[in-house]
Amino acid sequence: MRQAPSDFATQHTGIVSANCSVAQVVHDCAERAGGAVEEACGLPAGTAPHVVVMGHTDATFMCIPGHFAYIVHELLRNAMGHVVRRYTGRLGEGGAGPAFPPISVTVCSSRSDVVVRVSDEGGGIAASELPHVWSFTHPLKAQRLHDLHAVRRMEARMGEDAPPAGFGLPMSRVYAEYWGGSVTVHSLPGHGVDAYVQLPRLGNAVENIASRRRHT
């Protein structure tokens, strides 16, 4: 995997990175998501599903890394969680090699935008549940709404003051759509999920405020 350039941390104007490495963000998010899944599922360190990055691995673009990382982290954490739940029990006694199918991340870059696909083999999402993954108010999530007093802390920071469980995916779509992008999920029943995040390069799109006002 391509490492970020040595001056990566200095190429910022405020919170905007002029040359954000997509592969580096995926790498960092994979490490954090893997640790979170290992802790949540009681797995030995280093045994979470591995992440394989392919495509335009040298792609960079101007963005707010915090927002981008939040979205990628949520997609990877969900993918890893699905795989672990489906394949629990496959850990080899010797611990040699990964026990779970890897998570595939494909990066596509053009002059106008960047697309990242996260593919897993976690069995997919039931058709009856798929429409509700974007909901903040579905009955299954309603019991968690008492945590909304913490809304001021629900900012795009992976692993810090995370939203209540079940809210990460709809929050990710909010951040992507604000910048004129999108987050979509396609379920392959019995196999897994392909999740896509598309973000325009800053400077090619403005904040998507007008379109959001039309829906309020």
Q: Care to describe what's here?
A:
- 30% of the residues lie in helices and 22% in strands.
- Strand 7 (182-188) and strand 8 (192-200) form a beta hairpin.
- The protein is globular and about 45 Å long.
- Residues 211-216 have low confidence and may be disordered.
- The protein is an alpha+beta fold.
- It is built from 5 helices and 8 strands.
- The strands form 2 sheets. A 5-stranded mixed sheet has the order 3-5-6-8-7, with helices on one face.
- The chain has helices at 22-41, 65-87, 139-142, 168-178, 209-214; strands at residues 12-13, 16-21, 51-55, 60-63, 103-109, 113-119, 182-188, 192-200.
SSE order, one letter for each helix or strand: EEHEEHEEHHEEH
Helical content stands at 25-40%
Strand order of the largest sheet: 3-5-6-8-7
The geometry reads as globular
Helices, by number, come to: 5
Radius of gyration: 17 Å
The count of β-strands is 8
Q: What low-confidence regions span 5 or more consecutive residues with pLDDT below 50?
A: 211-216
Strand content: 15-25%
Query: How would you state the average pLDDT, rounded?
Result: 80
| Helix/strand/pairing category | alpha+beta
Major beta-sheet overview = 5 strands, mixed
- The first-to-last residue Cα distance is 42 Å
